[in-house]
């Protein structure tokens, strides 16, 4: 089932999500539906709050970024995380962020048609459960680490625009207002805040 993506302005996007247990109702189906929703929306990551579920769950597929790169793009930059991952993260908690902050042009399915350069740490070490509730502690870097940090923000009630300067956010005010009012067209299903 493809869920509508929750749009900027909806309160669920600002909640700190809760950990879940292995007996969370319909978890396998929910994860399957999140993958389907993410791909239908042309995303590379999707967090549960973006489908109106305030739980610490997100999915990441950075492998598709590398699969879709042309040879010139591959030669341009050294990608430490190639060929990427396809992974489910449950009850993720950051252990450590390390390295220099670096810029990358980010967008978000919940904030369509806005892209900005966001500075994030080079590496993130996470403690999390996989879809079988096996515990892992692992370090991620490159584009994969970036996507994980972006999705992690969602389960902590943050958005990528929170990393912008107050002036930059103010300049985006009208566009953000249009999104929260539903005055925007996208090629995937969205759920806008009630007026």
From TrEMBL:
Active-site annotation: 151
Recorded E.C. number(s)?
3.5.1.88
Q: Do the record's keywords include Protein biosynthesis?
A: yes
Q: In which domain of life is the source organism classified?
A: Bacteria
Gene3D superfamilies recorded = Peptide deformylase (3.90.45.10)
Reactions catalysed, semicolon-separated, are: N-terminal N-formyl-L-methionyl-[peptide] + H2O = N-terminal L-methionyl-[peptide] + formate
Gene Ontology biological process: translation
Give the record's keywords alphabetically. Hydrolase, Iron, Metal-binding, Protein biosynthesis
Q: Where does Fe cation bind?
A: 108, 150, 154
List the GO molecular function terms.
metal ion binding; peptide deformylase activity
- Explain how, and how many, cofactor molecules are bound: Binds 1 Fe(2+) ion.
Iron listed as a keyword: yes
Which cofactors must be present for this protein to function? Fe(2+)
- Please give the function described in this protein's UniProt entry: Removes the formyl group from the N-terminal Met of newly synthesized proteins. Requires at least a dipeptide for an efficient rate of reaction. N-terminal L-methionine is a prerequisite for activity but the enzyme has broad specificity at other positions.
Family designation? Belongs to the polypeptide deformylase family.
> What is the designated name of this protein?
Peptide deformylase
Native organism: Flavisolibacter ginsenosidimutans
């Amino acid at each position: 089932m493809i869920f509508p993506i929750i749009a900027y302005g909806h309160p669920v996007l600002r909640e700190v999500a809760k950990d879940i247990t292995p007996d969370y109702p319909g978890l396998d189906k929910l994860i399957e539906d999140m993958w389907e929703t993410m791909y239908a929306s042309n995303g590379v990551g999707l967090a549960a709050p973006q489908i109106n579920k305030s739980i610490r769950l997100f999915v990441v597929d950075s492998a598709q970024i590398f699969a879709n790169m042309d040879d010139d793009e591959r030669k341009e930059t050294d990608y430490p995380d190639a060929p990427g991952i396809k992974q489910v993260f449950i009850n993720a908690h950051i252990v450590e962020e390390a390295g220099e902050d670096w810029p990358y042009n980010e967008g978000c399915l919940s904030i369509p048609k806005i892209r900005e350069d966001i500075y994030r740490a080079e590496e993130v070490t996470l403690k999390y459960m996989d879809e079988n509730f096996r515990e892992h502690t692992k370090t991620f870097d490159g584009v994969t680490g970036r996507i994980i940090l972006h999705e992690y923000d969602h389960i902590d009630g943050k958005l990528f625009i929170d990393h912008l300067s107050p002036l930059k956010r103010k300049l985006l005010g009208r566009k953000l207002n249009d999104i929260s009012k539903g005055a925007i067209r996208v090629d995937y299903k969205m759920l806008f805040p009630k007026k």
